Amino acid sequence: MAGGSGDIESARSTSDLDLRWGFIRKVYGILMSQLVLTAIVAGIVVAVKPINRALGHTPWISLALGVFALILLCPLYIYRQKHPLNLILLGFFTILLSLTVGFVCAYTRGNIVLQALILTATITIGLTLFTFWAVNRGYDFGFLGPLLFASVLVLIVWGIIQAFFPIVRMLTSVYTLLGALIFSLYIVYDTYLLIQRFDYDEYVWAAVNLYIDVINLFLYILQFLRGNP
Q: Membrane-spanning residues where (predicted)?
C-alpha cells in the first residue's frame, strides 16, 4: 500500500509539473505574439508619415492612448479568466500600447532605438533565465512585490513633478535609470509569479504583467539613451 501511495503522489507531482510547464509555454507564446504585434504597429507608425505627424502635432492623442491602456487594465484583470473576452481585451490593450511605443520611436534616431531594443532583449532574457535558475534552487522573490509597488508610486510622483517643474539633465538620467532598474526587477518578480503563483487559467494576466515590464524597460532605456547620446 505504501508503494502504491508513493506512485500516486509521484504521478500527481509529474502531472502538476507538466501542467505548469504547459502554462508557462502558453504565457510566453502570448507574450511573443504581443511583442511581434507591437513591432508591427510601431513600425507602421514610424514608416507612415501622416500617422506620426498627426500624433506629433496632437500630443494629447498619444497621452490619451496611454490613459486608455491604463483604464483597460481594470476590465483585463476582472475578466482575466473569461475566454475569449480576455483575449479580445488583450488585443486592444496591446494595440494601444503599441501605438504609444511607435509614437516615441518615430521621434527617436534609429540607432538609439536599435540600441534600446538590444539592451532590452539582453536584460529580459538574462533575468528570465536567472529567475528560472534561482526558483529551481528554492529562492523566493515574493518579497519584491510591495517594494516594487512603492517604487512605481515614487516614479509616478517624480514623473508628475518633472512634467511641471523640469529638472536638471543629470536627475533625468537618474530617473530613467531608476525606472529601468525597477522594471528589470519586475521581470524577476513576475517571472517568479509565473513559475510559482499564477493559476493555470490566468495566462492572459500573466502575459500582460510581463509585457508591461518589457515595454516599460524598453521605454526607460530609450529615454536614457535619448538624453545621453
A: 27-48, 60-79, 85-105, 112-135, 141-161, 173-192, 204-225
Runs of H (alpha helix) within 107-228: 110-136, 144-164, 169-196, 203-227
What is the spatial distance between Cα 33 and Cα 18, in angstroms, rounded to a whole number? 23
- Pairs from 31-36 (Cβ < 8 Å, separation ≥ 24): 31/207, 31/210, 31/211, 31/214, 34/90, 34/94, 34/207, 34/211, 35/211, 35/214
Other beta carbons within 10 Å of 201: 13
How many whole angstroms separate alpha carbon 60 and alpha carbon 38? 21
Cβ atoms of 184 and 215 closer than 8 Å: no
Cell of 7: 506512485
Does the pLDDT value for residue 101 go beyond 60?
yes
Residue type at 31?
L
Helices then strands, each counted (H, E), the chain: 8, 0
3-state DSSP helix/strand/coil percent for the chain, to nearest 5? 85, 0, 15
